[in-house]
Amino acid sequence: MRTVTVRVADVTVAVGAPAAAVHAYLADPDNRPAWQSSLRRVDAVVEAGGPPGDVGTTWTDVTLVPGVRPRMRVVESEPPHRWVEVGEWWWVRATLTMTYAPRPDGGTDARAVAELVVPLPAAPLAHALRLPTPLALAADLRAAARVLG
């Protein structure tokens, strides 16, 4: 089946904490429901043997939408600079890439890039998500920023 990749968000939020703390907090699946508004909880977390959210860590996102439970997997982790997760649910593959840049004030610019890979017939739906997704993702990152100070 032919697929299309759609970038649905590219947002940056200033966080008043060092990059190492931002990375550690955002990468830990157990913290996700505290800052990700679309989640009820995470289930079936399997750590990879390193710090929480290290490469190979997997879990299931239990979202607010009934029946939507993507299986998540960390595919890259380069603390405190970069972290990448992939989620798969039915015919959708979502990738979230987080990068962290130090700020002169000691804080961090946290950049989130979200992409969807969907079958070609679903491309219009994926493109429609380019409107609400950046707003929701930025709000989620601001929630995490409030927790981190």
CATH homologous superfamily annotation: START domain
Cα radius of gyration in angstroms: 15 Å
Number of structural domains:
1
Classified by CATH, the class is Alpha Beta
Q: How far is the N terminus from the C terminus?
A: 46 Å
Proportion in β-strands: 35-45%
CATH topology value: Alpha-D-Glucose-1,6-Bisphosphate, Chain A, domain 4
Major beta sheet, specifics? 7 strands, antiparallel
Number of distinct helices: 4
- CATH architecture assignment: 2-Layer Sandwich
Average per-residue pLDDT, rounded, comes to 96
DSSP strand count: 7
Task: Provide the succession of SSEs.
Answer: EHHEEEEEEHH
Structural category: alpha+beta
Q: Can you list the strand order of the major beta sheet? A: 1-7-6-5-4-3-2
> Based on CA inertia axes, which overall geometry fits?
globular
Percent in helix: 10-25%
Unreliable segments of 5+ consecutive residues:
none
Commentary on this structure:
This protein is of the alpha+beta class and 149 residues long. It has a single domain (3-148), classed as 2-Layer Sandwich (Alpha-D-Glucose-1,6-Bisphosphate, Chain A, domain 4), CATH 3.30.530. The chain has helices at residues 19-27, 32-35, 123-128, 132-148; strands at 3-15, 39-46, 58-63, 71-78, 82-89, 92-102, 108-119. Strands 1-7-6-5-4-3-2 form a 7-stranded antiparallel sheet. It is globular. InterPro entries: Polyketide_cyclase/dehydratase, START-like_dom_sf. It comes from Nocardioides imazamoxiresistens. Pfam families: Polyketide_cyc2.
